[in-house]
Amino acid sequence: MKKIALLYGTRFGGTTGIADKIAEVLTQRGFEVLIENVNNFEDFKKIFEKEYTGIILGSGIQVGEWTTKMKNFIKNYQKNIVKQDIKLGMFVSCGTAQNNEGIIKACKDYVDVFAQKLGLDPVITAAFGGIYDFSKKSKHGTIKKKILKSIVKKETPGKFDLDNINDFRNWYDIVSFAETFAENM
After folding, report:
1. Domain limits of the chain?
2. Beta bridge partners of 18
3. Name one GO biological process term (predicted).
4. CB 126 within 8 A of CB 111
5. What does the CA dihedral 21, 26, 27, 28 come to, rounded to 10 degrees?
6. How far apart are CA 16 and CA 171, in angstroms?
7. Nearest partner of 103 among 19, 179, 172, judged by Cα
8. What kind of architecture, by CATH, is found in domain 3-130+168-184?
9. Whole-prediction pTM value?
10. For the segment 115-157, what is each residue's pLDDT rounded down to a tens digit?
11. Which of 11, 64, 93, 96 is the most buried (most CB within 10 A)?
12. What percent of the chain has pLDDT over 70?
C-alpha cells in the first residue's frame, strides 16, 4: 500500500477541514495516509523514517504568509521533501481564493512563488477559499474581528454575513485536488 504524509498548518481550524477531506478521499482510493497538523506535532524526523511515496503540504494564509511552523518544517526538511521518488502536492486556504480569479492569484502568490523559493516542484498545487468567522463563538479576538470586518466591508461590501460564519471552501475543488494527486501517484 502506498503511503502519503499530509502535513498542514492552521491558525483557526479552517485548513483542518480541508486536510481531513483530502485524507478521506485518498484513503478511499486505497492509500495509507498520515495526517498531521504541524502545530501539534513535534517529532518531524519520524515522518521521514517511513517510506512515503507522496507528501502533501498545506497551510492557511494570513497576511500573505504560511503558518510559521509549516514554513519552518518545509525549510528544515526541504532536502527530505525533494527526494526524487516522492510526489509532492501543495495547497493553501485563504480569503483570496473565493472565485476563479482569486484562486489563480492565490496559487501564484502563495504556493508557486513559495515553492520556487524553496526549490520544491509539486505535481499539483491548489488554493481553496477559507473561513471568516464573525460569530460570537469565533476563535478570533474582538480586535481581530473588528479589523477583518472593516476590511471585508470595504473590499467586498454585502458579500459577508458580519455576525456568522462565512465558509468559502469549495468541497468539489478539494476532492478534485485529492483525486488528481492520487492519479499522479
Report:
1. 3-130+168-184, 133-166
2. none
3. heme biosynthetic process
4. yes
5. 90
6. 13
7. 172
8. 3-Layer(aba) Sandwich (3.40)
9. 0.87
10. 998 889 999 999 998 877 677 776 777 777 676 667 666 666 6
11. 93
12. 84
